[in-house]
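User: Hello! I'm new to structural biology and keep hearing that structure can be predicted from sequence alone. Could you demonstrate with Recombination protein RecO? Please show me the input and the output so I can see what each looks like.

Assistant: Of course. The first part below is the input, the amino acid sequence of Recombination protein RecO. The second part is the output, the predicted structure written as tokens.
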Amino acid sequence: MQGFIIRLQRVKDEDLILAILTQERLETLYRFYGARHGTINLGHMIDFEIEHSLKSSIGRLYDVVHLGFPWLLDPARTRLWHTFVSLFYPHLRESEETGGFYFTLLKDAAERWGTQNPKRVALEAYARLLHYEGRSPDRTHCFFCENSIDEASVCMIRAFQYAHTDCAHRTPINKHAADELLKHQSALFLSDEEIDLLWATLLEGF
């Protein structure tokens, strides 16, 4: 079985409780600390087995193989990946059966993370997530006042909802570039400054 570690909680004696997003489920598993265990961390993609026991309500993680990506040797990219991946657990924690979409989304992002701007990859992935969940924002009206959006004064708030800059008190972005992100999941037309603005918005949560 393969999955991404989207939450890592340390418990007594350096044991771990892990939330692992697999192709179909969000698994909560226990991992005992041991000197022979390889290092695993948030965001790692692993191949693993689950051992179930009548003595515990959660399964035990064992026979772990780390499925690494070359960019994990780049500390800056790795830090951004940890930040991005950590957003998934609060969003999915109430769902045991997740289907294949979220796993595939992370896998596709991981494969592009080393060759493209990671923040752009993350924003495009999130736009795909919003579309998949039926949460694509209204691109014609302000989230706050519900009046029409003026192209000269549009900004994006949490969940990439559109708003007037005066209503949200945020920096404006190019509406055409924002539309391309949401309609076609492409961050191509966003400037680096706009990418940083939307990355900060993304960090507010899914």
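User: So the tokens describe the shape?

Assistant: Right, they're a compact way of writing down the 3D structure. Reading them back into a model, for example: The chain has two domains: 2-70, 74-202.
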